Amino acid sequence: MKKPLSRRTFLKGVSLTGAAARIALPPLEAMFNSHGTAYGAERAPIETRFLLWFNGNGIPEKYWIPTETGPGYTMTPCLAPLAPFRNDVHVITGVDNPSARKPGPGNDHHRSMSALVSGTSFTGRGAGGPSIDQAIAARLGGQSLFRSLQIGVSQESFGESIQRNLSWAAYDRALPPEMIPHKLFDRLFGARDEGWIARKKSVLDAVAEDATQLQAGLGKADQDRLGDHLESIRELERAIAGLPPEYAQVEEPEQGGDMKDWPRIAKLQTGLLAHALVTRQTRVASYMLTKCQGLSRFPWLGYTAARHHDYTHQNAESPESQRVMRDICRWHVEEFAGLVGKLKATPEGAGNLLDNCCLVYIHEHAEANAHKNNGLAVIVAGHAGRLVTGRHTKSAGTIGDLYLALANDVMGAGLEGFPSGRAKLAGIAG
Amino acid sequence: MLAARIVWSLMAVMALAAETGRPSLRRLTHSQYNNTVRDLLGDQTGPASQFPQEDFVHGFKNQVEAQSISPLQAEAYGAAAERLARNYFRGRETPRDGGQFVREFGRKAFRRPLAEAEARRYGALFARGGGQLVVEAMLQSPHFLFRGEGADSRLSYFLWDSMPDDQLLRSAAAGELATAAGIEKAARRMLGDPRARQALDEFVSQWLRFDRVLNTVKDRRLYPQFNPELAYAMTEETRRLVADLVWGSRSFMEIFTAEYGFLNTDLASLYGFPAPGEEFGKVQFPAGSDRAGILGQATLLALTSKPEETSPTERGVFIRAQLLCQEVPDPPPGTDNNLPASTEARPLTNRERLGVHLTNPACATCHQLMDPIGFGLEKFDAVGKRREKQSITFFPGRQERGSRAKAVELEIDTRGAVAGIANSEFSSPKDLGRILAGSAQCQECVVRQLFRYAFGRQETSADRPVIARGLEVFRSSQFRLQELIIYMAGVVR
């Protein structure tokens, strides 16, 4: 048997070789112990990963929510793409989003979105607190190259901050998603030689010094704004660290192409996301397939007359409109199923990447036309932390209750609480 | 740490800025970044157009409270700086005297002379990687990305949307910008420069939300003539009307009453007017046309419409918010948004569908402020084309292959009114334009919008004297926007 290598050895090695470093998957076998479950040298278990997945607007409940509960439920038309992964997913419906109903600024979409991701009320501009992925990343993201990643696909929406962003670092502090595949590739897998890294570090050091000195002479508000800049610079410094050259190459997505061909972009983005997770560049990610109150068009489904949000309200109860919604939401699930499939097909340790992932799939509303913010339909996928899968559960808990169970029982983040959460939802982790 | 972040709230930022009595640092907007690297490096590539999108807050993209720097934004600054510095030194020799280069380039990039410690810091970078590394770093420095209190930067970013030129930096160094007279002199010179036109365009494109026209979608079956080129032409018409009024020193309130426009062939065809002699040349509207000013322009009519039909509500909201500076609240939680459906058996006009807004007391409180404004513009469809009747097309569903679309035509009642303005009954864009142009609220709103844009924040009660004085200046100049801009340049902090 080969002598186990430590990841840290790799990182040091890079600065000695000075060669162009490219990274990719999968982690070298030499890094696992003989059981294939852990890094041999460090004896640490394989990390669990968390993904928050979002689709805009709501759903047509009758085509989405299964009638039966328990393991024997019948897959609905919208859920059908997940049929091959039936035992990898847990469909949870009936989830309440009570903070969305508190009076305050904004329209229903704004209020629901802030409450959905952060459990807190919309501020008039953004979410009222950190989103669940960021609450988890604050506890678990510290050792990764990226504390967290934000990835997006379709850019069409009414275009305000709360509608365009899924991840929030704190009150009103959006973390915008990267929506251009080749830019995302460059962040994650772009060629970096030692000289580039050293150069970049010297630049960032100078800039950080500027920021620190500038901060000293300012009022409190400006100090905090610069502090934000400084923190972003430090995140950047961390992310440009050297990467193991021994890793195989990830194929670079082509530049250009139709940048409004969302199915194409979505496939590139989920591919890069899977690579980022398996190469351990981050433990926490968020993925916005479409935007809150999204205005995407769906020419590949044959719907060109209007945009997604228009369809949700145009004679919404008519059979024709319900079928449009059904097809749109089935496409959302199809893309999600595509990611689940990729993760499952990626070996990791003795099993596959999906074994170590916890994916949570959410929308801002249940029935779209009514802007319904109770009875939300959620999909949890993966097997991290002994997630319960293979069933449909009707829940009476809140979105905060669900997040608490996922963050603490599955991810081990040790959150003391989460807004709108009262008690961890039961039946989530075995 | 998270608790410390809560200071990002709007109220906290405003309160702290007021408490410390300091102006807030302002980050370059994406537009200012593009213009600045053009003027600083001669780079025309507009790298900020690829940055993460900016938020509209209080109607503008330059509001201080929205100007944080996320990690993705920091990365975008880094990548742009690397590329800009590389391009700048392509075919240009790296300077021999590092100390001199750092001081000279630094003075332009930071818009002030470098402090000793800064010169040393960047001198060390020069020793390591030459001028290119210095430029790459300076373009990411907060001293470049944020601007502070200097009168020169304040003037140039307001009046030019870009960095100060040498003359302005010299005036500042000589203390000439310390007096009101000095500022006015500088401002008048600056308004004569072509950069002032780009700055005005930027203000107008944000105020009148050109982004919404440029990103709008229309049902292709109903509006086959609508495409991105036409959308661009719409905004160009608006831009040229504003430029004509401002730089031709006419009354800015003619923005609501002008019976002429700047049309290309496509727009003229959309409007049903004769083709113009030259593309976007000035044309007088035909006698009897009820178009006038921006209310009759396709820009406003299209951006306030849905893909398939107009939205009298949206039109009312836009006119209230952008042109009268009145915020209309969003519907409260739990509102039933369903309107009666317009069906083949019972086709309904927009006015009829929206009737429930005015009969249901829960809706009427707010909707009486919005919908009746839109009703008066109903003779202009979702792309700004004149119509006598509302045509409703019923397309066959997918299940009904082979059957044809059916259209019905309904009479339009265009009686509208602006609640809160006396004798404001109207039934065309031209009528409404006259009402707005003469309305004190609307005139004051122009001042307030310019205030928000110049100051990068919403006005507070403490700003009332500044607004009131601005309105006096605006009125006594017969509504010359240039005079209002010069006034604002003197008071902006």
Please compute the radius of gyration of chain A using only Cα atoms: 22 Å
Question: What is the makeup of the main sheet of chain A?
Answer: 7 strands, mixed
Task: Tally the beta strands of chain A.
Answer: 13
Please tell me the overall pLDDT of chain A.
Answer: 86
C-alpha geometry of chain B: globular
Mind sketching the topology for me?
The complex is a heterodimer of chains A (430) and B (493).
Chain A: H1 7-17, E1 38-39, E2 44-45, E3 49-55, H2 61-64, E4 89-95, H3 108-118, H4 132-140, E5 149-152, H5 161-164, E6 167-170, E7 173-175, H6 181-189, H7 194-216, H8 220-239, H9 262-278, E8 284-288, H10 308-313, H11 319-344, E9 347-348, E10 351-352, E11 357-363, E12 376-381, E13 391-394, H12 399-410
Parallel strand pairs in A: 3-8, 3-11, 4-13, 5-8
Antiparallel strand pairs in A: 1-2, 4-12, 6-7, 9-10, 11-12
Chain B: H1 2-5, H2 10-20, E1 26-27, H3 30-41, H4 71-88, H5 98-109, H6 116-138, H7 142-145, E2 146-147, H8 151-159, H9 166-173, H10 180-191, H11 194-207, H12 210-214, H13 228-247, E3 260-263, H14 265-271, E4 281-284, H15 298-303, H16 312-323, H17 350-353, H18 355-359, H19 361-375, E5 389-394, E6 406-411, H20 429-437, H21 440-455, H22 464-476, H23 481-491
Antiparallel strand pairs in B: 1-2, 3-4, 5-6
Helix pairs in contact in B: 4-6, 5-6, 8-10, 10-23, 11-13, 16-19, 21-22, 21-23, 22-23
